[in-house]
Write a structure and sequence with these properties.
Helix content is 57%, strand content 0%. With 103 residues, it is mostly helical. It has a domain of 60 residues.
Length: 103
């Protein structure tokens, strides 16, 4: 459980750093004050990341154990009846008795 939390926290930090890097790349011709502001905001947000799950909506970066166990328990549908009728069967029921479409 704790490992999952640490991995999710590291991934969130990595995502924040990647977004900051991309933003700095886009601001390379702007004033240095804007780039410094972005860096300072990122440094202020990094220690707040552990509180993010409580303050923000869930951002599932890793599958939960219930999802993984549900995927393992999935079974194919029963083969008693096909999921759809064949096209030939469908067309045969739509055409008149002589087999020619009405014009």
């Amino acid at each position: 459980m704790m490992e999952h939390y640490v991995i999710a926290l590291v991934l969130r930090g990595l995502l924040l750093c990647l977004l900051v890097g991309l933003t700095l790349r886009l601001l390379h011709k702007r004033a240095a004050a804007y780039r410094h502001l972005v860096c300072v905001l990122a440094l202020l947000l990094l220690p707040v990341l552990p509180l993010a799950p409580r303050l923000l909506p869930a951002l599932p970066l890793l599958p939960s154990s219930s999802v993984v166990s549900a995927e393992r328990g999935m079974r194919p549908p029963p083969a008693s009846e096909p999921p759809f009728r064949s096209l030939a069967h469908h067309c045969a029921s739509c055409l008149p008795a002589d087999g020619l479409p009405n014009r």
